[in-house]
Amino acid sequence: MPMITTIPDLKTALPGPKARAIIERDAKVVSTSYTRDYPLVMARGEGCAVEDVDGNIFLDCSAGIAVTATGHSHPEVVQAIVEQAHKFLHMSGTDFYYEAQVRLGEELAAIAPMQGSKRSFFGNSGTEANEAALKLAKYYTKRDNVIAFFGAFHGRTMGSLSLTASKITQRKGFGPLLQGTYHAPYADCYRCPLGYRPENCAAECLNFIEDQLFVHLVSPDEVAAVMVEPIQGEGGYIVPPNVFLERLREITTKYGILLIADEVQSGMGRSGKMFAVEHVGIEPDIVTVAKGIASGMPLGVATARAEIMSWPPGTHASTFGGNPVSCVASLATIRLLRDGLVKNAATVGAHLLAGAKALMDKHQLIGDVRGRGLMIGIELVRDRQTKERATTERDAVVRECFKRGLLVLGAGRNAIRFSPPLVLTKQLADIALEILDQALTAVRR
Ligand SMILES: Cc1ncc(COP(=O)(O)O)c(C=O)c1O
Questions:
Q1: Which residue of 135, 171, 270, 282 pairs with 249 in a disulfide if CB–CB is 3.0 to 4.6 A?
Q2: What architecture (CATH level 2) is domain 99-309+327-337?
Q3: 267 CA to middle of ligand 1, Å?
């Protein structure tokens, strides 16, 4: 297959005829619950480039929702997959042993942001990783209740969904959800519910846990865990001040509550460090990862301090979890992350963030630009004073980017997220910024 050299490169009106035909077939047979913002039908990918079925080339700053960490079909990842596929595809790490799963457990024990020995549970997705963490926390502490945050997205299976508090469409119609789940305000400093400024904030929003939840609703000695995204992803790419996670660690330690860091979106190098909690320096008790962990192969992992993950055989398992092909893809991914991609996420991310901030001078529609590494959110507002959410404008900007060959996604009600593959170069970042600039201009008109 020829290398893709020009990115982006549009050849047909969008969607092209082949894409249109596939979308029509999809409408008849695929669940209507999926959220497609624009009509991209992928044929192949290479690094940060995506080619659609009509031969149009796009610059991918979505990475299939923050997944393809090493870029589309990185040759080393593909080679690892092919070699493993020739040996065997499956044997279930639940009932048998194979070395790839052990090696991945060793790697995760080495990189997970906690001291001491660690063990990992292997599933297939982010929501499964969080289900495992939730069950483990309950089992270990023998406590029933859990706390999460408003704006959080932890997945869509019933346990994780009970902790998710992002969009109401995700919960509506599915009740009753898990009993004993409570939510507290997240440190969304651009919209601080208490009116504080980030400079002089001491994470007062967390007082809600001790002054309200623990006084009126749930006794702290009956709380198993607090689950938190160190950077809120689906909620709008919200970066809390360090003090928020520091105080959360203090509160959880004080009451013997486990702290679960959901790094499904922020982990595996995306934030410019292997795990986003490393920016703060706190240690969770359990960390969950998925998305970028295997560059696109399905894998979700909950890694816990070994002392916590000591539940007896049969308490939790998964037929497909820790599939050997996914495990070797993950091992290749971790090697590439260590060998430079985490660093690249930090440097190119800083470049992209500065470029997006510079666009604020030109575009009043941008209310806030924030992020760490290649996890960047651009919040659109109708008025910088009132911060009225520019929801329809955000959707329009995402579509205008697509029309110009740039793939981005929305996050939260009115933010655009940049979550490109971690192989993004500064040159490609500049192209992305140029297209964003044009898209914002088109929507303003
Ligand atoms: C922070 C976080 N946790 C969990 C999930 C759920 O992952 P999955 O869709 O793989 O179940 C997501 C997905 O967007 C996420 O961003």
A1: 282
A2: 3-Layer(aba) Sandwich (3.40)
A3: 11
